[in-house]
Amino acid sequence: MVAAVLVAALVGASTAHASKFIKKGIYDDAQVLYGNPDKVFPVLQQMGTQVLRVNLWWGGPNGVARRRPVNASSPADRAYDWATYDRTVRYANAFKIEPVFTVIGTPAWANASAGWNAAPSRPADLQAFVTAAARRYSGSYAIEDGTTAARVNKWIAWNEPNNPVFLRPQFVPSGGAWVMRSAADYARICNAVVKGVKSVSRTGKVACGVTSPRGNNQPGTTRTSVSPLAFLRAMKKAGAKGFDAYAHHPYYGYPSETPSTKPPPGKRGQPTTAVTLGNFELLTREVARLYGNMRIWVTEYGYQTNPPDKQYGVSFEHQALYLTQAWKKLAKHPKVDMMIWFLLQDEERVPAGWQSGLYTAHGARKPAREAFERLVPRRP
Q1: What is the DSSP letter of 358?
Q2: Parallel, antiparallel, or unpaired: how do β-strands 171-174 and 98-104 relate?
Q3: Per residue in 303-336, pLDDT tens?
Q4: Ranges of each domain in the chain
Q5: Are 76 and 127 in contact (CB under 8 A)?
Q6: Is the bond preceding 213 in cis, omega lying within 30 degrees of 0?
Q7: CB–CB of 226/162 below 8 Å?
Q8: What is 2-374's CATH topology?
Q9: Do strands 177-180 and 171-174 pair parallel, antiparallel, or not at all (unpaired)?
């Protein structure tokens, strides 16, 4: 009980004062984790990138945990393969870019092979893995080659848990009615990540929520999802606590929307359930109501371009303009600590992939690349 009170006090203290700066970042695993770091990191540095979001896969095809560990909270357990992440944090540290780890992906052994996007059967398994990761990247852990792994101080619990692509099921039938399952599962995921990080470093920062901008709130449909505000309220009710920041992805819905355009109303004139940058204050007010003086992280944002995406893309010029406008809006908000752009380089798959990169798939610069470099971290 005393430890819980101390942790709560520390969390409250960490959110009491707004920073004079907002950090700009990039999220592009294809380039950062699996590309050529000798080419990628100099570009990130030239652009003035300050934070770098990467997915730390617990399970899945690229997961750290290749099998069930014997000592799950030890980074030295032979079930773990950290090589990709050791390299990434080493390069990030050398180029003075702060890594932000998103913990995601359940191993088959941790949920009876329900899939990487289903919650672990035992949150303690996830907590143990996060403890191992936080120990390895504490800034004082000697890795196998005799060097000390660089520190990771910012963590994100999962990705878009209100979206069935990343967490399922969203709803389950119970007593003749549908009950929201994703928020309850996610509250346990959030708490496990918080406990794992804080058990190693009380100054480590954890963001929960990480919500996608839209949800249909329609159980039983082909792609059931939960709107962000409904999800936020439900995860609070389910007991999500102890985290330092609420993360959200306030993407536009249509290419006609600018960063200041409010999302369209719902069906039959009902209020919108989407939270984009155009009505971002709805989210920040609800976070404050439920969690008090909570920090806000925008951990994913972007505009796709046409060419090549003719359905959702905007022109190269508008992408650069909207990037700048989004930054200026978020920089005015005293609780927003970062804006992370998705992607550095377009994916080649059209239209299945994303084309929000600052470079084309063939490596040509878009105007948004220079716009990103010109972003000023200081608040107006």
Answers
A1: S
A2: unpaired
A3: 999 999 999 999 999 999 999 999 999 999 999 9
A4: 2-374
A5: no
A6: no
A7: yes
A8: TIM Barrel (3.20.20)
A9: antiparallel
